[in-house]
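Protein record

Derive tokens from sequence
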Amino acid sequence: MVLPRPVSAVVFDMDGLLIDTEVVYREAIMAAAAACGVDLPLWLFHRMIGAPITQNRELLMAHYGEGFDFDGLIEAATHRFHDIFALEDRLKAGVVELLDHLDEAGLPRAIATSSGHDSVERHLRPNGVLDRFHAVVARGDYVNGKPAPDPFLAAARRLGVAPEACLALEDSHNGIRAAHAAGMMAVMVPDLLEPTEEMRALAVAIADSLHDVREWLAAARSSSSPSLGE
């Protein structure tokens, strides 16, 4: 596959891409729901991935009814999440190697996440990678969350790079929709969600891991060509 444009910057999602949080949160919210006597189907949880909290509130209220205690469920799930999350084991494969390559290539990079700045600090600071990003765009830094393009457009502005010159790395469907809507070259690195036909149409590539992304960028750099290859 050939990238439509050279890459001048890279914008990363966080949850499920840099940090293996999605699996842990799935366990936490399923356990919290069960403790509250609520059946949370897997398909419904999958629709929550990569979406802003306002959208997830609407989603669960529509499913369970207006009397559903959304805030109580999220609070209980968050407590469980923090109890079982092990920072030292949670960096996703290829993160450090990809950041090393971006350093060598002199490519700026940012985070565009639906999580808050406190979560970014808590998950990335202990792993020693937070300071390797030139900008962090988190909840509160934009009006509309993913699948709207706002987080990615804000990241591009902070990097001073045109959106169309940015490579966006995402694991969620909403994230790919947002990156594509922003005009970025979107690559999906699946975590809990499999790529659908829609994702294959919106993304310029589907990667098995961030190791693939590093290899593709290295190949393009060595050939001075904006190409993606095996």
Remarks:
- The chain has ten helices and six strands.
- The two ends are 9 Å apart (CA to CA).
- Residues 155 and 185 are 14 Å apart (CA to CA).
